Amino acid sequence: MADRVRVLVYYRCDDEATIRAAYDVVSPRLSHVPGLLRNELLASTHDPSGYIVLSEWSDLETHRRWEQSQEHREQTAPLQPYLDDRLPMSFGIYEVKASY
Question: Which candidate, 82, 77, 67, 71, places its Cα nearest to that of 25?
């Protein structure tokens, strides 16, 4: 069985309503993406402009196929302006190795 994958994409926005609106546009577009199990918008408790979209995928290969597709760019376009450019990489991909 392939390990599940969690993807964290880091965003920066000074207005919660603005990033929430973009997230609310993107999420329904992703509802039928193969392998995507769920996603959440998280707000930092330390940085009022810091947000993360956390998504869970069935496996790494499925995520990579979608990430390299034209659909990925189109589906996530409303969130693109808010990618956190303070970081060397605006995302991280993590395989689930254990859970309790």
Answer: 77
The pLDDT value given to residue 36 = 97
List the beta strands (DSSP E) in 4-90: 5-12, 36-43, 50-57
Pull the structure tokens for residue 99: 């859970």
Q: What is the CATH number of the domain that holds 38?
A: 3.30.70.100
Residue pair 58/35 in contact by the 8 Å Cβ criterion: yes
100 in a structural domain: no
| 74 part of a folded domain | yes
pLDDT in tens, 5-27: 999 999 999 999 999 999 999 99
Stretch 29-58: mean pLDDT: 96
Question: Which range of residues forms the domain containing residue 45?
Answer: 5-95
Q: What is the dihedral of CA 72, 60, 65, 67, to 10 degrees?
A: 20
